[in-house]
Amino acid sequence: MKARKKNHQIFKPDPSKRGKRISGKTGLPPGSLVHIGKVLTDSVSVNLTEYNSKEIFQRKIETLDSLDVTNSLNSWIEICGLHETKIIESFGNRLGINPLILEDILNTEHRPKFDMQDDLLFLTLKAFYIDTNKEIKNEQVSFVLGKGFLVSFQESTHPWFEPVRSRLVDSTGNIRQHGLDFILYSLIDVIIDQYYEVVESIGDHLEELEDMIFDNPSQILIYQNRMIKKDINSIKKALLPALEAINKLNRNKPELIGKDVIIYYNDIDDHILQILDYVDTHRELSAELKENYLSNLTLRMNQVMKLLTIITTIFIPLTFIAGVYGMNFQNMPELTWKYGYFAVLALMFIIIAGMLFYFRKKKWI
Length: 365
Known about the structure:
Elements: E1 45-51, E2 56-60, E3 74-80, H1 85-95, H2 99-106, E4 113-117, E5 120-130, E6 136-146, E7 149-154, H3 162-170, H4 180-215, H5 219-252, H6 262-324, H7 333-336, H8 340-361
Parallel strand pairs: 3-7
Antiparallel strand pairs: 1-2, 1-3, 4-5, 5-6, 6-7
């Protein structure tokens, strides 16, 4: 790999700017560029990877003047950070990307979709991952494929595409023999593979919850199950339109994707369907866990009520005996009997033993 001169990032965000809600676009004309969502990175970075079958170059883009996608090399541009709309607009103008596409890119709450505009292929997806705190996070990743260039847009600097970059640098397999349509497939495949890791983690967590709910049901467990169900719903909400987008791409067979590469996109379709099956299974298990929690809670409540009922039943005759001899009438011969106190205690113990034997025989205890 040939080295290029070292460069540094020059795109710095305005600290006063923050992501907006969709309502912030009310009244604006179509194509107005407004960032919708949270700011997930402090600065916007732009990386360029240029390659052909024999060589590869990597560098950071400092100014648009240094960006040239008209040469014979395949150009993959990575833009990390969407909150600086002026930067996104400048790249869009330089590469001829329609403002309507840029508008969808900046709206990070947009559902996954596929579209073709002005000889450009546009695809946006939701990418899920597990962060260092073992929490499930997601962000929007968008792609624009044109003649000679591919642009990927992501909200943060999360290294989604490091495996693809490593394969390009090492020339693993035949990745450099293909064009940017195959790189786009590889980037999408990396995102879909992350779903497997997230879904498997959810499955492991559900199995742990199942054991804990059976052993000792508690509100904290049902709360965790509710959070898992929320993650499951978010994943399914992202996968269904993603499946629709990939299906639309496969049906349209755009010219920018070669016939020898389109079969790989069909494989993505199969992977999404498989993940959806896992998601549905986990969703059913989550619902069963809630039912098991309520059943175990009811069972434990019944056991407590059963114990209290037995204790109450035992003390009814004892209370009757104590009440009779607690009336203190003068004409009660037992009160003056020398062994009356001990006889009454013995009678109480006999009653307790007899009732316990009877309950045991009936298998009530």
